[in-house]
Structure formats: C-alpha cells, structure tokens
Amino acid sequence: MKPVFTPLHPLFVAEVSAIDLMQLHDPGTLALLRAGMDQHGVLVFHDQTFTDAGQLAFAQRFDGALHTKTGAAAVRPNRLKYEGLSDISNVDEDGKLLHSEDRRRMYALGNRLWHTDASFQDPAGRYSMLSARVVPPAEADTEFADMRAAYDALDVATQKRIESLHVHHSIAHSRQTLGFEFSNEELDKLRGAVHPLVRTNPRTGRRSLYLAAHATRIMEMPVPEGRLLLRDLMDHATERRFVHAHSWRAGDLVIWDNLATMHRGRPYEDGVHRRELRRVTTLDIEGAPAA
Ligand code: OGA
Ligand code: MN
Predict the structure, then answer these.
(1) How many angstroms separate the alpha carbon of residue 1 from the centre of ligand 2?
(2) Residue nearest (by alpha carbon) to ligand 1 atom 10
(3) Tell me, what's the pLDDT at 74?
(4) Could you tell me the CATH number of the domain that includes residue 259?
(5) Dihedral of CA 216/220/221/222: which sign?
(6) Is residue 22 classed as helix, strand or coil in its secondary structure?
(7) Stretch 97-115: mean pLDDT, rounded?
(8) 227, 121 in Cβ contact below 8 A?
C-alpha cells in the first residue's frame, strides 16, 4: 500500500499512514518515504514496535551509513549495546532517574537549545530517527522549525549576503553557553566542523539555513560580527510561524531531515517522570540510498 502523507503544519511535517517499519523492505515504498522526507522535512509514524536492532537496521535500509559520533560519547559511555544508537533518556544504567546534578543530565539539557544533530561533525547528520519507548504522562514535546521556509522568508539582500558564508559548529560551544564545563581532554575530542550557512537539497534544489546552537562563528567575519548575524538568523528562523511541536506517544518514530529543520526538546519534570527515547542518525554523505 502506498504511504499517505497528512500535513500537520502549513509549512512542513506530515503524519504517515499505518506502516510497520520493522518489516518494511520494499524498495518502492522506501523511495516514496524518502520523497516524503524531501517534501515535508519531518515524518511522524505511530504504533511502531522497534527493538534496538530493528531500529538500527531500518535506519540503514532507509538512508545508508550510520553516524556513530553524535556527541554524548565524549562525556557519557553509551548505556546501550549498539554504537550508532543514542540514548535520549533521563535514566542511568540501572534504569533510575538521573539526579538533577548528574553531569550526564546537564549535558543532555543542551538538547533543549535549538540545534541540528551532529552539525559539529564532518560528515554531519542527515536524517535522525527518534523512537519513543517510554513517554511521561505529562507534556514533554520536541519542537521542529522549518529552515527551508525560514530561508525563503529572508529578504533577497540578506539571502545574497549570506549565500557563500561558512559556519564553525562545536558541541562544546552549545554546552558552554549553558555553563557546562569540559576538561581539556574532552575539549580535545570536540574540535567541531565547518559547514556552509546555506545548504541546498540536491534532489529538490530547495535551500535552507543550516544553523544550530552549536554554531560558534562565521568563518568569513570577525567573531563578534558573525555571532550577531547568527543570533539574528536564529531569532528569525525560530519564529513561531516556522515551528511545529510534536507531542509524543509511546511507539512513535519521528524522522527529521537535519538539513531542512532544527529541533529542540521542551522542558518537563525529568526528576519525576521517565522519558526514554532512542535515536539513530545517518551520515550526510553522497551515495546513500536517498541520493
Ligand atoms: C535528539 C533531540 C530532543 C528531545 O534526540 O536529537 O534533540 O525532545 N531530542 O528529546
Ligand atoms: Mn537533537
């Protein structure tokens, strides 16, 4: 059966009709879902029954090679057995809620800043696939912002001014803006990466702003001037008209295109409620099935 895409926002994000992604191997359907990603930027699937291995296998069928360096590994040994599977949860290895002062919790709080996944790496992350296993009874949303619409809404003079600029991204930077401290040894592992500020989807030709809280500076500008421009662009790109909030149900899988969107987690009572999600991110390289 052909997947049906139902838009959830005027600009982006669609819910996909019932489909069991664990069992999905049909190349035609996978191609239709990739085309759906190019159009909508974020796809929401309900009632998935992923195991960790099943989620990893699906991610590779869908978009090729997996990212294994999306960040937390520098400060937190992965509690999960699989490289490539990121633990987006507020519990420790024994399944207990992390203490409010726990360094792993404070590091993870950085996910509440607007960002794209692994922009501080080269290659960066292309698709992220976040599977909700345990969700709180209270609201604990993830918000998405459409970076294609944000780019389109810039005036032409600004589009021209920023067209050939490059941005340095570092995960240490986004955490440091929250007062999180790193050892020299950690900082050594977190040098960051440089990417264009405006990126073009090779299949659709649509441009988008490639921004994140990880952005430290614009390479072609003095640091303060670049930071001011980055702040202005961030304010613009996260205006409410570009934003959709996803309210999680257990069994949801949400896939987002990190080149077309930014996202952030919203605050919730993480000292009271368990919230366990698992993320797999693919490498933004050519030659993957989506290319
Ligand atoms: C992520 C992320 C936010 C959230 O998984 O990459 O940023 O709401 N998650 O958990
Ligand atoms: Mn993220």
Answers:
(1) 31
(2) 265
(3) 62
(4) 3.60.130.10
(5) positive
(6) helix
(7) 95
(8) no
Q: What is the pLDDT of residue 81?
A: 78
2: in domain: no
Is the separation of the CB atoms in 49 and 281 below 8 Å?
no
pLDDT of residue 291: 42
DSSP of 33-88: HHHHHHHHSEEEE-S----HHHHHHHHHHHH-SBPS-SSGGGTS--SSSSTT-EEE
Beta carbons of 130 and 253 less than 8 angstroms apart: yes
- The pick from 114, 279, 280 for probing ligand 1's pocket by mutation, whose C-beta has the most ligand atoms within 8 angstroms, reads 279
Residues paired with residue 131 on neighbouring β-strands, in sequence order:
253, 278
Domain count, the chain: 1
Q: For residue 43, what are the domain limits?
A: 11-282
Residues with CB under 6 A from ligand 1: 88, 111, 117, 128, 130, 142, 263, 265, 277, 279
pLDDT score recorded for residue 287: 63
What pLDDT score was predicted for residue 73? 64
Average confidence score pLDDT of the chain: 95
CA distances from 6 to 3, 14, 15, 136 (A): 10, 5, 5, 26
Query: Which residues partner with 42 through β-bridges?
Result: 256
Q: Is the whole model's pTM more than 0.85, yes or no? A: yes
